[in-house]
User: Which sequence fits this backbone?
């Protein structure tokens, strides 16, 4: 087995084990509708066995970045339909990533109202708002009576994703956003049923996964985690224990995949005991997707050793639409342009050359 072996994810046959990782590109148009260019962008990368889209907000309250798409309005659903139709015509599979940023936001996005979080704690960092770059403010703690509404928003977003023609969904539980904030004890200081003990802190992530699975069936639902992420004042006193507990809960639900972002350092600089993937691999029986610093050689090795079922690639896919073909032919890779990661319209979005055009 290697990156080019096919794989069956639920009832979906993937042509290879290379996944396009979700990447925020900040190119949505007015109304947080996917840019018409998005259909071209994702179709260009349809050599991936599976595409996972950029995070898409489940509600207006979930917004924390300018020009990011949502999945809560009819217009957004229609915009995503154009993307799924194009990707399916090109022969690939595509999942939508469901996103709520929680406290990683600013009142500029919410009519002057504070963003929400599990606890009202200060957060280091800044975000780009419609009125410029601003610091993240101390958020408002969600009242326990509001939490069922958050779960309902995830469920409705999952229904909208199905209406838009996606093959499944991935819940964004990584990178210091809302569900990650509830899970970790550094960001969750609640004393009610959604805070304190580990089972309480994991309650919202698991209840969200259960609600989304009720729409799609658990096998078509994935969940992304980043145990090593420390930006936005994120921390946990025992991350291996915390994320192992979550993995057990998601495994009990029968979720189709778990998407683990590993430490970004070169693997040879990370001591084996500091890797969480082997432990998570033993706990979670669905497909395990690994992400973080992988190239063709390291990806093939991880698949061969059965450390993972699939490997996801972010920036390499951003700069190389035909990444699987380049890996197969051992061809050189395009260099990414960080200046156009989050701006540029066509530039840095749909203009990276393919091998056939070089």
Assistant:
């Amino acid at each position: 087995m290697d990156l080019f072996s096919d794989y069956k994810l639920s009832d979906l046959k993937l042509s290879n084990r290379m996944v396009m990782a979700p990447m925020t590109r900040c190119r949505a148009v007015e109304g947080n509708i996917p840019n018409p260019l998005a259909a071209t962008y994702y179709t260009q990368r349809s050599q991936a066995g599976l595409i996972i889209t950029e995070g898409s907000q489940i509600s207006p309250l979930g917004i924390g970045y300018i020009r990011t798409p949502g999945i809560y309005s009819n217009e957004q659903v229609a915009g995503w339909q154009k993307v799924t139709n194009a990707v399916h015509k090109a022969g690939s599979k595509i999942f939508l990533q469901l996103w709520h940023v929680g406290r990683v936001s600013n009142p500029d996005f919410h009519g002057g109202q504070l963003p929400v979080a599990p606890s009202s704690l200060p957060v280091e960092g800044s975000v780009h708002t419609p009125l410029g770059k601003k610091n993240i403010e101390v958020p408002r703690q969600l009242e326990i009576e509001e939490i069922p509404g958050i779960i309902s928003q995830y469920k409705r977003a999952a229904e909208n994703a199905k209406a838009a023609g996606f093959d499944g969904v991935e819940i964004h539980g990584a990178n210091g956003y809302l569900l990650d904030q509830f899970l970790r004890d550094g960001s969750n200081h609640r004393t009610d049923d959604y805070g304190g003990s580990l089972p309480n802190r994991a309650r919202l992530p698991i209840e969200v996964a259960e609600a989304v699975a009720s729409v799609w069936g658990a096998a078509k639902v994935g969940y992304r985690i980043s145990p090593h992420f420390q930006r936005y004042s994120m921390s946990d006193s025992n991350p291996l224990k915390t994320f192992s507990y979550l993995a057990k809960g998601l495994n009990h639900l029968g979720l189709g995949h778990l998407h683990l972002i590993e430490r970004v350092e070169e693997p040879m600089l990370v001591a084996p005991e500091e890797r969480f993937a082997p432990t998570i691999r033993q706990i979670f029986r669905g497909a395990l997707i690994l992400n973080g610093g992988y190239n063709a050689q390291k990806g093939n090795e991880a698949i061969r050793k059965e450390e993972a079922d699939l490997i996801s690639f972010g920036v390499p896919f951003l700069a190389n639409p035909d990444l699987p073909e380049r890996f197969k032919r051992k061809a050189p890779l395009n260099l990414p342009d960080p200046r156009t990661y989050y701006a540029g319209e066509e530039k840095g979005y749909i203009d990276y050359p393919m091998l056939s055009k070089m």
